[in-house]
Design a protein that fits this description.
The chain has 402 residues and is of the alpha+beta class. The protein is built from eight helices and eleven strands. It has two domains: 141 residues; 156 residues, Heat Shock Protein 90. The strands form three sheets. It has a five-stranded mixed beta sheet. Strand 3 and strand 4 form a beta hairpin. Helix 6 crosses helix 7.
Length: 402
């Protein structure tokens, strides 16, 4: 089990960054395309107005005027527009030549003239003025126009969107970094708890055997028996060291009997149950010839974790842990059932999370490691099949049959 992000994590971050850049560029291009289309529409409106004035200027009818143009074309315009003569001079007396430009009513004639001259320069930087001509050669007027409020908003909108997205990404990064640090802290705490949990049983057992040696040191046969048990516990400590050294490495899988491997764990616990002060019966039922490709050390670790959790959950003296093995056409199903206090429904999804614990010892990384061992290394499944408050819990493991 890796404790930190590797190349896959870095690649994922790069993919996310590239994806974010593509979204930002796509949004910018799409918005700019909309702006160009709107500007083109506004230009056509101004050109239409200019053509209308040209038509009236070139018309031989004496009754022609600008009323129709003003009512139907100029009035609906919502972008800044300013009409000047060919030399960019504004008729300050004619209010109809200025549209959608906010003017301070307190300005003097000189200040107003200077203000409009600046506006003309600004609008000409945005768009070239439309010329109104007479007889296709004489320039009568120039129509200067700028961007509407909608276009201005659209121009700045993608940058605002990118800024908000950047802030969101920054907050998300800070949040995820905080969660990651917390998770890593939980993993180290959980690893420490799990190490103590794993070493706890054989060390307690060794202490018990030492006391027995002190009491029966003159009984040769008894000393031999105790020495054998001590050898088993020392071997157990060696196994635990081996297991932790293999975390993160690819384990070697062998075609083994699931029943035999579980039976070894059962026997080990049965010899040490009297020291726990609880009267707990461990029952193993099932098909002996059921084989699967497993790593013996890691698979035994999973069964040990489930049995230890079951023992912790049994808070009365008459306990029972039942392990059943069932073989189907494709799978081998293992169920570990206890008559303990059960797991709260709200906590069932959390028990496999690294660092999660409801006890003073255990469940820090035990079930998290068990899940990884079964699902990643053995390509199987492990989950809580059922749990009833005050009645017990059943864990289920599914392995592919060899």
């Amino acid at each position: 089990m890796k404790m930190s992000g590797g190349p896959a994590s870095v690649n994922f971050k790069i993919i996310l960054l590239v994806f974010a850049i593509l979204i930002a560029v796509g949004t910018l291009l799409y918005t700019q395309n909309l702006v160009l289309r709107l500007q083109e529409n506004e230009k056509r409106i101004v050109e239409l107005y200019a053509k209308g004035i040209e038509y009236i200027a070139n018309s031989t009818e004496s009754g022609a005027d600008l009323t129709f143009l003003f009512e139907n074309i100029i009035k609906p315009i919502d972008f800044p527009l300013l009409i000047t003569d060919k030399d960019n001079n504004v008729s300050l007396m004619d209010k109809s030549v200025v549209r959608n430009i906010e003017i301070d009513s307190n300005l003097t004639q000189k200040q107003l003239k200077e203000f409009l001259e600046k506006k003309i320069i600004e609008m000409d930087e945005q768009h070239s003025p439309i010329l109104v001509t007479y007889a296709d050669s004489i320039v009568l007027q120039k129509i200067h126009y700028g961007n509407s409020r909608l276009i201005t908003q659209l121009q700045y909108y993608p940058y605002l969107q990118i800024l908000i997205a950047a802030l969101f990404i920054l907050l998300g990064y800070v949040g995820f970094s905080s969660i990651k640090k917390s998770e890593q802290s939980n993993i180290w705490v959980g690893m420490a708890k799990e190490t103590a949990h794993q070493f706890g049983t054989p060390i307690s057992s060794l202490m018990g055997w030492i006391e027995m040696l002190k009491l029966h040191y003159q009984d040769k046969d008894r000393v031999i028996d105790v020495t054998n048990e001590i050898a088993d516990d020392v071997e157990k400590l060696n196994k635990i060291t081996y297991r932790f050294s293999k975390i993160g490495a690819v384990p070697e899988l062998k075609n083994l009997s699931v029943y035999d491997e579980i039976h070894k764990v059962k026997e080990y616990f049965e010899r040490r149950l009297p020291q726990s002060g609880k009267s707990v019966e461990i029952v193993l039922n099932g098909e002996k010839p059921a084989n699967a490709f497993i790593n013996a050390e890691l698979f035994e670790w999973v069964i040990e974790n489930l049995i230890k959790n079951a023992l912790d959950a049994i808070d009365h003296k008459q306990g029972r842990i039942e392990i059943s093995i069932k073989s189907s056409k494709r799978d081998i199903e293992i169920e570990v059932k206890d008559n303990g206090k059960g797991i709260d429904l709200k906590r069932r999804k959390d028990i496999f999370r690294p660092g999660y614990s409801t006890k003073r010892r255990g469940w820090g990384l035990g079930l998290s490691l068990s899940k990884r061992i079964i699902e990643v290394y053995h390509k199987g499944k492990i989950f809580v099949k059922s749990s009833v408050h005050g009645e017990g819990t059943t864990f289920k493991i599914t392995l592919k049959k060899s």
